[in-house]
Amino acid sequence: MSNIPVDVKYAKTHEWARINEDGTVTVGISDNAQDQLGDMVYIEVPGVGQTVTAEEACAVIESVKAASDVYAPIGGEIVEVNDSLTDTPETVNQDAYGEGWIFRLQPADKSEMDDLMDADAYEEFLESEAH
Amino acid sequence: MHRQPSPFFIVWNITTENLTIMSNRTPLFDEHVAAGGKMVDFAGWEMPINYGSQLEEHRQVRTDAGMFDVSHMVIVDLKGDRTREFLRYLLANNVDRLKNSGKALYSCMLNEAGGVIDDLIVYFLRDDFFRMVVNAGTRYQDLAWLEKQAAAFSVNVNERPELAMIAVQGPNAREKTLPLLAGSVRAAASELQPFFGVFDGDWFIARTGYTGEEGFEIILPADEAAGFWRALRDAGVKPVGLGARDTLRLEAGMNLYGSDMDESTTPLEAALGWTVAWEPAERDFIGRAALEKQREQGVKQKLVGLLLEGKGVLRNHQKVVAGVGLEGEITSGSFSPTLQRAIAFARVPAETGDTCWVEVRGKLLTARVVKPPFVRNGEAQIEL
User: What is the CATH architecture of A13-126?
Assistant: First the structure.
């Protein structure tokens, strides 16, 4: 049973997005995603200052099993990336919603958050994907 | 020829939408599930790919002791006065190297074209009794081939599906296992030389493995497997899944049938020339003529080890570029947890030199050609 916290929103491509107090949005991948991919070995984070649009591939996570693109859930400018993942990629497996965050962006259009799923919708989405 | 019915469960999984393939379960299935094993299909068997972290399990084997359920592999007893003679003809390696009872030999079994039907281990027990362990994925082809070839020598081919097998591997594997063996065999097992085995009733303990570490592979009756597995677990041996099994054997430079070679490859194209016993020249074996011809004409491809110079993971079937018009393919690609680098085996043109490039997601990444093994007894064997 996957961990699906309610304080974030979810994309169909299994990223989560959390609005911070300062208006920036932190992004990572869901517990379901890290479980499917298995042990992480490399994370290619985006560059600070890079502009991304919603659904654009902007990071790559490689596990022993497969390489997977990480898509920006909403558009904006990357303001911070989690460099610690270079040394400890397994943080994504261990703490997907906390220390395993991948990047933080300044949203171009906050309303794009409304296009994402809440926890209940994501849970239903996962169940429908399983069949 | 006598085949016993399998006592293992045959399970039908019926979903609401489609009838899925039937899969076998070993006697340790419940243990795997109880230990949190993520069960997947492997050659028609429901096996644990990991129990939570493949990297942790790999490390466990390199630093302590881990155990694998290998009951899906096929144990075949060969009996008859002409068994040795039969195996001299059947196998590319020479069983005459086995002079002492209990000694094991790693060999390829070839077809007439020199292609590899399977790689296997054969134990000499008595002149009229040898035991073979072959891969799960080639069970049907292997048994059919054995029965066909054995007929001319009146050798009895007897599969032993009522036996399970557990491999305990790691620097502390033997120390943790020995106290759990029956008193009657403990001394003999502790004195086993590498690549030797010893019987204790229906149990067979061999100092062999597929990880590059010390350890045992233990054959035992299926109904005793769960009890022994639990005893090992209580002694601090951790269960290890198929995911780690693959990264361990790759680091150790060991081939995987179906990936690194198959019926369309000869041992000479799979870095297994060392397992072909050309001497004595008078020994004919199935595939010898084809191999000699290939050797004469020059082998066009070779299997090499690769170490990716930078970051990334190498994966099966990625294209390898060795030069202009010189292309090959990765046969086994992965990430080495011990070296923290990507490693692989690749089949490349014979002229390939010290470096090449691998196409990874559209980019050509530099790789160095190295001679396996990559790791032995926990230590890097190549320059990083």
Answer: Beta Barrel (2.40)
